[in-house]
């Protein structure tokens, strides 16, 4: 991205800057796509006069990102970062099974189903003390400081998925994967191999199933009915992981072998 000259900068109207302080100093130009991306990456380095100024600048920047078709997932995560926990965490990821087929079958009704799925996931997560990190597409990513609370949320989520009928009699199911690790919390969200492993674990499950790694099992402080699934290798994860399936009243309990994974 080419730097603005003093003359070019002076020629831009105030609306082309995300932040203008009380002295009239203009910062974070957002007049084109390249500068919007640069402003998203530099937002956390700016010293704002107060929280109201930060909020106004953030809103201007998000509107500019939308105008240029930019999805600022990392930026949004960074704004949430101060509220998110650090240290050893349990990750909970959900994914709708057969979402492409559901979209084809339901058409315009799919958006309503997607919103309902997110509600049935996020409500138990928050009730159990978890933090919803992101909910985009047909995935939800949440973190918990306590492994037992994560399992509790997963069980209640699957019960919620089975509680009420879905449009046109569709059988809407989600797969849930749990893993535990010590990620880094950066301006773009959680980073670390354990986060990638959690995603791989989730995508290897089947609709209605809850699976978790031995890292989660060893951190449980309450009794949970678990079925050992053996040791599996996941693409991109160097070490094989011992996996378990959660059993609880009211949940489905018969599933094929894990998908997109190989027995160690």
Throw out a few tags for this protein.
264 residues; alpha+beta; Alpha-Beta Plaits; 2 domains; 8-stranded mixed β-sheet; two-stranded antiparallel ribbon; 9 helices; 12 strands
Question: What secondary-structure arrangement, pairings included, does this model have?
Answer:
Layout: H1 6-11, E1 17-20, E2 26-29, H2 33-42, H3 51-67, H4 73-80, E3 89-96, H5 99-106, H6 110-127, E4 131-136, E5 139-144, H7 147-163, E6 174-181, E7 184-186, E8 189-191, H8 193-204, E9 210-213, H9 214-217, E10 225-233, E11 241-247, E12 262-263
Parallel strand pairs: 6-9
Antiparallel strand pairs: 1-2, 3-5, 3-6, 4-5, 7-8, 9-11, 10-11, 10-12
Describe the structure.
This protein is an alpha+beta fold and 264 residues long. The protein folds into two domains: 6-70, no CATH class; 82-263, Alpha-Beta Plaits (2-Layer Sandwich). It is built from nine helices and twelve strands. It has helices at 6-11, 33-42, 51-67, 73-80, 99-106, 110-127, 147-163, 193-204, 214-217; strands spanning 17-20, 26-29, 89-96, 131-136, 139-144, 174-181, 184-186, 189-191, 210-213, 225-233, 241-247, 262-263. Strands 4-5-3-6-9-11-10-12 form an eight-stranded mixed sheet, with helices on both faces. The model has no long low-confidence stretch (mean pLDDT 90).
CATH topology of the largest domain: Alpha-Beta Plaits
Kindly state the mean pLDDT as a whole number? 90
Distance, first to last CA? 47 Å
* Whole-number count of domains: 2
């Amino acid at each position: 991205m080419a730097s603005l000259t003093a003359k070019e900068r002076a020629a831009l109207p105030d609306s082309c800057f995300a932040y203008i302080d009380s002295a009239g100093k203009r910062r974070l130009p957002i007049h084109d796509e390249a500068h919007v991306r640069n402003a998203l990456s530099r937002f956390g380095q700016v010293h704002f006069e107060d929280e109201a100024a930060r909020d106004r600048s953030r809103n201007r920047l998000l509107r500019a990102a939308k105008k240029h078709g930019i999805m600022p997932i990392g930026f949004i995560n960074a704004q949430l970062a101060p509220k998110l926990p650090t240290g050893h965490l349990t990750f909970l990821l959900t994914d709708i099974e057969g979402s492409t087929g559901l979209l084809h079958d339901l058409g315009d009704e799919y958006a309503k189903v997607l919103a309902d799925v997110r509600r049935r996931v996020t409500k138990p997560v928050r009730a159990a003390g978890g933090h919803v990190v992101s909910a985009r597409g047909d995935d939800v990513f949440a973190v918990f400081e306590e492994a037992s609370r994560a399992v509790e949320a997963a069980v209640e989520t699957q019960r919620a998925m089975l509680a009420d009928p879905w449009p046109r009699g569709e059988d809407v199911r989600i797969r849930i994967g749990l893993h535990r690790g010590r990620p880094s919390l950066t301006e773009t969200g959680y980073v670390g191999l354990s986060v990638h492993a959690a995603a791989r674990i989730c995508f290897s499950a089947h609709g209605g199933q809850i699976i978790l790694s031995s890292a989660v099992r060893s951190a449980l402080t309450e009794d949970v009915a678990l079925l050992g699934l053996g040791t599996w290798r996941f693409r991109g994860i160097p070490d094989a992981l011992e996996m378990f399936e959660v059993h609880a009243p009211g949940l489905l309990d018969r599933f094929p072998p894990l998908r997109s994974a190989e027995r160690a």
